Amino acid sequence: MRTRKKYLAVLFMVCILAGCISAPEGTVQKEITNLIVNGGFEEDDDSPDYWFIAAIPSSGLKLYWDKTVTHGGKASKSF
């Protein structure tokens, strides 16, 4: 019984040591690539660049740039 406990203790310590050795030193952050052109609505000249009204017209559809509601940026697109 004692040998089994010693074996498990040594095995546990080896696993902890292996985890410490293989763990990275710090968090590695990848560069984020935006898949949508001007997806953050930050490029502008009265309305966000590269964003257009729907190809099929719809009555009552309004698209505008809302600078009062944001999420991590300066503006948002409102439909």
Structural description of this entry:
There is one protein chain. A two-stranded antiparallel sheet has the order 1-2. The N and C termini lie far apart (71 Å). It has one helix and two strands, in the order H-E-E. It has one domain (2-25, 36-78). With 79 residues, the protein is an alpha+beta fold. The mean pLDDT is 72.
Tell me the layout of helices and strands.
Blueprint (H helix, E strand, L loop, with lengths): L1 H21 L41 E3 L9 E3 L1
Antiparallel strand pairs: 1-2
List keywords for this structure.
alpha+beta, 27% helix, single chain, rod-shaped, 1 helix, 79 residues
Q: Major β-sheet, in short?
A: 2 strands, antiparallel
Shape: rod-shaped
Query: Helix/strand/pairing class, anyone?
Result: alpha+beta
Q: Mean pLDDT, nearest integer?
A: 72
As residue ranges, the low-confidence spans are none
Quick structural gist:
27% of the residues lie in helices and 8% in strands.
